[in-house]
Amino acid sequence: MIVSPDTQRENRVPPGQSETLKWPVLDAFGPPRINTAEWKLSLSGLVNQPIDFTWEQFCDLPRVKVFADFHCVTRWSRLSNVWEGVSVRELMERAGGAKAEARYVVAHGYDGGWTTNLPFSEFLVDDALVATHHDGEPLTLEHGAPARLIVPRLYAWKSAKWLGGLEFLPEDRAGFWERNGYHMHGDPWAEERFGHGW
Ligand SMILES: Nc1nc2c(c(=O)[nH]1)N[C@H]1C(S)=C(S)[C@@H](COP(=O)(O)O)O[C@H]1N2
Ligand SMILES: [Mo]
Fold first, then answer.
1. What are phi and psi of 55, to 5 degrees?
2. What lines the ligand 1 site, CB under 6 Å?
3. What is the pLDDT of residues 105-148, one digit of tens each?
4. What's the farthest any 2 CA atoms get from each other in the chain?
5. Number of domains in the chain
6. What SS3 state is found at 90?
7. How many angstroms does the Cα of residue 98 sit away from the middle of ligand 1?
8. Is residue 195 part of a domain?
9. In a domain, 19, yes or no
């Protein structure tokens, strides 16, 4: 099991957050219906070998478990989650690695073009994965099934549910909430909730 470094802090609840034992559902448009026969996960843009995984191909990849906390910008934190899925490092290897110019990532959801952006250096870390399971159970549709991105070190809105694509870019490009004022980076320990111009 990979242990997310923030779970080893003495105080695991970032400033301005409160612990919740429940797991609230938050999204902009509600869940899309995704048929795994049609599902794909595409890695595109600045990777050496752009690739589309079918559901079968994705399920055949080596899997990891990650122990991590989950911090929502609406001020709840759910501690001690066990996520299971495919590490982003594994996915990047299958795409031949990123090109040197790749500096940012845009994650695309299947929910009507929803996106979120993050720095590549925050994405390619040991505790980031594309998860299919949470605490030993398959993800429910409302929490992002069949597969969602999990980036534990950033606020939860960067963890795209219903993940369909990862796009690698030379420059930052605001996603859905970021265009509406959310922070381009989103570090919960620095309370990067809202960005410039908010
Ligand atoms: N595709 C997609 N992913 C998304 C969202 C969304 O609207 N669409 N909302 C984000 C927000 S704002 C949060 S706080 C987390 C919430 O995840 P949860 O509903 O599993 O708690 O999902 C994030 N991922
Ligand atoms: Mo959120």
1. -60, -40
2. 23-28, 72, 109, 111, 114, 143-144, 156-157, 159-162
3. 999 999 999 999 999 999 999 999 999 999 999 999 999 999 99
4. 45
5. 1
6. helix
7. 26
8. no
9. no
